[in-house]
Amino acid sequence: MKKILFTGGGSAGHVTVNLALIPKFMDAGWSMDYIGSINGIERQLITAIPNVKYHSISTGKLRRYVDLKNVKDPFHVVKGVVQAYQLIKKLKPAVVFSKGGFVSVPVVIGAWLNKVPVIVHESDLTPGLANRITSRFSTVICTTFPETAAAFKNNNGHHVGPVIREEMKQGKAERGREFVGFSKMTKPTILVMGGSLGARKINEVLRESLNELTKQFRIIHLCGKGNLDSSISNPDYKQFEYIDQGLPDILAYCDFVISRAGSNSIFEFLFLKKPMLLIPLTKQQSRGDQLLNAASFEREGYCKVLHEELLDSKSLITSVRELAEEKEVYIKNMNGFKHHDALGLLYNLIIETAK
Ligand SMILES: CC(=O)N[C@H]1[C@@H](OP(=O)(O)OP(=O)(O)OC[C@H]2O[C@@H](n3ccc(=O)[nH]c3=O)[C@H](O)[C@@H]2O)O[C@H](CO)[C@@H](O)[C@@H]1O
């Protein structure tokens, strides 16, 4: 039986493509292992899947800012490399697929030391730090955006396009309504998603604006772990920390989306033709990848952008109303995007690369 090893984590954006690939390898009868961190979101998402064996290793965050943990973390990364090397030596996978995030660095180096071919995936317009490191130890780097492929120095970039999980295509609006517990009613519904980990500023401003927004809309708020606010009682507002299996149904049910600009999420919204208001992570909080993702979508006319520096209750309410008024224009523009089978392309590439 052929064996594949997946890695990637830290946030769901570094797990989603793995979640899309796993059913394909399962159907083809491959044996599957996953190396992730001890406490990252990948543990919760992957251990819920039967037939995938989860192994955890020590990890260290790769920070761009000064922090006392920067002294300790290189030791965690080195320990992770040793653990990954030993695990891969024992597991003997035919190929490693890495979706990035800091946990992937020791795994990819461990695979390279074991001479196992590695495929890396980058979903943002500019490569993340982890992928810039792991690209040097990889056979192919697959990208969501065409221009990203050229950024990798070893000429091993390969554009595959946005990988959409199969279940995203099978959402049912009525199931979504029942899942969240809204009564049958015609008020348009907005899904608010501050990235897979939630976004404090978006949560605060949204909650300040709730009374005004719910005069016109219903709101489903994915607020991130530990961010529920039990003091709010509004029949047109439902909040969840994170939704795993039910998300396709909820997206099918929603009319609009307010979101961070993580690449996997925005391509899912594009695929489902949901007019979106994007509030990208700022340059102070990140390398600026979401600003570029959002700018690229704005140029194509797929979204409206509200920069966090300008985000307050007034600008949020105005932007949402404008989005709703211009709904048809956004949908028309999104209809022009040509989707192809990126998941199939990626799957075939992995099969061809496997030893
Ligand atoms: C803070 C941070 O580091 N953000 C990065 C992270 O974002 P983040 O982890 O938010 O990643 P994305 O927006 O790309 O993807 C999130 C994925 O989680 C899913 N989802 C989300 C919420 C939920 O309740 N249920 C659920 O299933 C979405 O459908 C999507 O498939 O990875 C992205 C892709 O590399 C980057 O663009 C972001 O800059």
Can you describe what's shown?
- The chain is of the alpha/beta class and 355 residues long.
- Helices cover 40% and strands 16% of the residues.
- The chain contains 13 helices and 13 strands.
- Strand 1, helix 1 and strand 2 form a beta-alpha-beta unit.
- The two termini are 13 Å apart.
- The mean pLDDT is 94.
- The site of uridine-diphosphate-N-acetylglucosamine has 26 residues, from helix 9 and helix 10.
- Its main location: membrane.
- It is a peripheral membrane protein.
- Pfam families: Glyco_tran_28_C (PF04101), Glyco_transf_28 (PF03033).
Q: Which features characterize this protein?
A:
355 residues; Rossmann fold; seven-stranded parallel β-sheet; 13 helices; globular; binds uridine-diphosphate-N-acetylglucosamine
